[in-house]
Amino acid sequence: MSLTDELNGDLKAAMKARDKQSLSVVRMLKSALMNEKINAGHDLTADEEVSVVSRELKQRRESLSEFESAGRQDLVDGVKAEIAIVEKYMPKQLSDEEVQQIVAATIKQVGATGKGDFGKVMGAVMPKLKGKADGKLINQTVKSLLN
User: Fold this and answer.
1) Residue 111 gets which letter from DSSP?
2) What proportions of the chain, in percent to the nearest 5, are helix, strand and coil?
3) b/e code 79-115 from CB counts within 10 Å (16+ = b)
4) CA angle centred on 70, ends 90 and 60, rounded to 5°
5) Which domains, from first to last, does the chain contain?
6) Is residue 125 within 8 Å of residue 138, measured between CB atoms?
7) Pfam families, per this entry (predicted)?
8) What is the rounded CA–CA span in Å between residue 72 and residue 64?
9) Which strand (E) or helix (H) includes residue 130?
10) pLDDT band at residue 82 under the 50/70/90 scheme
11) Cα(6)–Cα(98) distance, integer angstroms
């Protein structure tokens, strides 16, 4: 079942349950996917769908940190609920240890020896972990293993 089909089913369920929060987030995801499909000019692949959903998730996490630093608890609660809904559509996230193992293997694979090879390692590891781990975690792991 494609992500679009899953979103359509969840949209109907949210309408029947009168769940305004879920309905809003599912509509937002459908809209983002449709906009990306129009921009790309073709049906989205599974990887492209994951990148759209991860972009939306990243935006919400950034909003969350901004609201927390501003002390806006009313907005923090709403964004946390949105994040929980968006995370349902992401692939299973890898643990820190799994990310570390993949990054270490990639470092050996590309023959990286120090900080100067950071870009080469990131270029090789991101396609492997796209959508499966947070970009910040990957970045920090690569930096720590290259030091």
Assistant:
1) T
2) 80, 0, 20
3) beebbebbeebeeeebeeeebbebbeebbeeeebeee
4) 15
5) 3-87 (1.10.1510.10), 96-146 (1.10.10.410)
6) yes
7) YqeY
8) 9
9) none
10) very high
11) 28
The 3-class SS string of 19-76 reads: CHHHHHHHHHHHHHHHHHHHHHCCCCCHHHHHHHHHHHHHHHHHHHHHHHHHCCHHHH
pTM above 0.70, yes or no: yes
Distance in angstroms between the alpha carbons of the first and the last residue of the chain: 43
d(CA 23, CA 26): 5
Q: At what angle do helices 73-87 and 20-40 cross, to 10 degrees?
A: 60
- CA dihedral (81, 82, 83, 89) positive or negative: positive
Give me the pLDDT at residue 21, please: 92
The pLDDT, as a whole number, for residue 1 is: 62
Give Rg (Cα) of the chain: 18
CA distance 63 to 58: 9
- The average confidence (pLDDT) of the chain is 88
Cα gap 16→69, rounded to integer Å: 36
